[in-house]
Amino acid sequence: MRIEEDLLGEREIPAEAYYGIHTARAVENFPLTPYRVHPKLIRAIALIKKAAAEVNCELKFLPKAIADPIVQAAEEVLQGQWQDQFIVDALQGGAGTSTNMNVNEVLANRALEILGKARGEYSVVHPLNHVNLQQSTNDVYPTGLRIAALWLLKLLSEECAALQEALQEKEAQFAHVIKVGRTEMQDAVPIMLGQEFSAYAQAIARDRWRLYKVEERLRQVNLGGTAIGTGINADKKYIYMVNDRVRMHVGFGLSRAENMIDATQNADVFVEVSGLVKTLAVNLSKIAHDLRLLSSGPFAGLGEISLPERQAGSSIMPGKVNPVIPEAVNQAAFHVIAGDVAITLAAQSGQLELNSFMPLIAHHLLGNLELLTNSVRVFRVYCIQGIVANEEQCRYLLANSLASITALVPYIGYDRVSHIAHLVGKDGRSLEEIVVAESGLTSEELDKILNPKRMTSPGIARLPD
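Request: output the structure for the sequence above.
Response:
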């Protein structure tokens, strides 16, 4: 064990640990969940520490002999090393200070190790005086959260693009399959199965566009604003240079917020992002619900499509196969929607110059982005790509429904069509026999009017004079 000291006194720290006393106190104070801080956020903060050390060295605020090992340590974290040393709970008081200090301590102690010094020998490399130089949790943590969210948004957008393409492939594959459309769970008018899938593809296309546009707000950071956005204890050259250096390291556009006080205290941008992620979840859930309905049965339900069989569905009913992939996607969507509520409450609960609840926002936002990325991939690979149309069942249900008679309204009026619908099935006559008898239209005219495929596109059939 080694002994470390802070303003509250001394604590024993495991000798092999890269974390220090601030992290140990946080672990003791916040034994709340089984979740740790999202790895992408840890890596984003390490990237900021790397940039800060480089700039502080160039501006002569930090000796090269100290800056270089800090940069090396930060790069190692960026590559995924030492993840087991980031042990604070995802939910924590202090607006993310425990996370920032966990990173500071790991980088300081790893830098000491690189220099051949003992861990905890902070007179050589100090977590605050050196690793955290010209920084505050209040500018590092929100900036890191924005970077992490942008990384994850890119992955989610790529998966949405692949899902949209898979749905469009099904749109083309099912373009010839005509079936009953339904509104309010009742038979409506004919529709092509491909048209249903085109609507799903269009919804996902809108989600892709929304997520792309919201990146603009995430790209404005408050790095250099330090405690409350005023930039206290940060050199002006450092503020400009560190933002440029972070932008260079992340490889995409970032800009310093015009009003860093606003960017420090207000979390509405994360609510906006979360709201659009929730919108995607809503669309995914709606599609999953539809697929479960369309594949229901397979013999006593709609059975218009078949989903890929993924696993046995019952421990008591042999041969039962459940729509487990859409069900899992539904549950992921519900989880995202619940997380959005938590983000909303956290954002509106911040007071004055800082939002204390940033860890809750980070936990749900980053978690939701990752959850939906995985869900979209699973949905596409294990469900959408393997869907098969049951064409005979689609034709059978259409032929035995009243879905087509709406097309008669322009010719004989709503009331007479309603009367015909009421007569169907009463006396054994076919629909055609009843329509001819009740409407005065000929069989040839009915064939033209009641052509189901014609009813899946705009227009009214013209009858010969």
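The mean pLDDT is 94.
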